[in-house]
Amino acid sequence: MTNERAPAGARHVAIIMDGNGRWAKKRHLPRAVGHQRGVEAVRALVRAARQMGLEALTLYAFSTENWRRPEEEVSALFGLLKRYIREDLAEFVENNVRLHIIGNYKALAPDVVALLDDALERTAHNDGTTLAVALNYGSQDEIARAAARAAAKGPITPEAIEAELDTAGLPPLDLLIRTSGELRLSNFLLWQVAYAELWFTDVLWPDFTPDHLREALDQFGQRERRYGGR
Ligand code: IPE
Ligand code: IPE
Ligand code: MG
User: Which of 49, 59, 68, 113 is deepest in the core (most CB within 10 A)?
Assistant: First the structure.
């Protein structure tokens, strides 16, 4: 196994995995097939992120707005999620991948919650790459929940809110990628993106490969991050 390092010190990459439906439509296939192929892209990418030594990879899998989709599509998506976790959990355990969930996952179906809780527990002591999956995630919902918890403890400051976000404990976000050519954030990591670099590609998610991640990280390495200074 190669031991390549993520270039230029990127520690935390997040991805809005978009375009499964359009990928399937182009091929006259059902949307569910696009989602299936999307899972294959996830599997390859998680392996690559681990081999590159990324500290954290956060993947947008299901938004608070995705409930607006037909029930059949929603249940297909959760079916695929359950299968992915069942099939790859042993690999996470073996390869020191820690699973983390952002979003209000406790509100999901009881069998999904049980599966996730088990996977979280079994990977909790791993200290390699953290795979953070955004499920029933909306950034506005996350910030509102964090602010409420911060307010219950004391004065509401940016630091106090940040400490209560679902991403607390992960490294600061370095790079946000969105596939499929859409130039919007769709309620993803609005707080965390404050000084992240952004990278957009027309590639549809099922076609996204570790080489695309390498390309994004290479370009990230050439950017100058100024954080408002000079
Ligand atoms: C992304 O692909 C997967 C999820 C949002 C769950 P889409 O299903 O949004 O694909 P498009 O945008 O319709 O092509
Ligand atoms: C964002 O994609 C959500 C996920 C990738 C899970 P959408 O396809 O839901 O976003 P919009 O509707 O195009 O903004
Ligand atoms: Mg979409």
Answer: 49
